[in-house]
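Researcher: Go.
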Amino acid sequence: MNRDVLWSSIDGAGIESLHLIEDSAGVTAGSVVIGSIDGASFRIRYEVECDPQYHVQRVDVAALGRESESITLRANGEGKWTDGQGTEVSTLNGCIDVDISATPFSNTLPIRRLELDQNESAEVQVAYVAVPEFRVEVASQRYTCLDPIDTDGGRYRYESISSGFAAELPVDPDGLVIDYPELFDRVSPL
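Model: Structure:
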């Protein structure tokens, strides 16, 4: 797979351009997101690398422009994380996935990794990267497969256990969100 995907924010105050490559070596996603949250404008770029089973290996999130904020995390795919200097980040122990708040791509990671059957659910701990604050914390989430991915796509229920937020997410055959109620819409073709 070698794809480009665009999402816009529902309120019209943002856009994301994602480039995704999946091959036998693994998965690489690179993106630029421009947006506004609660009146605070931001511009970021992120890169996420995963093994072929969608276990996160590396995450880089950086502000674009004059700001010099950035986060680099590395993971072993089994729940152990280090920062950009190789120092263990024990607060993230047990997290397999990453959730960058400014992008619907984050949902693709557990959807593809878990490969849930219809009506099957799984609770996951994620390394949650809040944008534009550049704060990293652990978040509990649940995914339920409503319709497994096939040639027409699929449908999943996402729940943030800590906040109580829930959404039904239609995805394309590659597990990429088509629309995210109240947050994002895909603006490029499937």
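Model: The CA atoms of residues 147 and 176 lie 14 Å apart.
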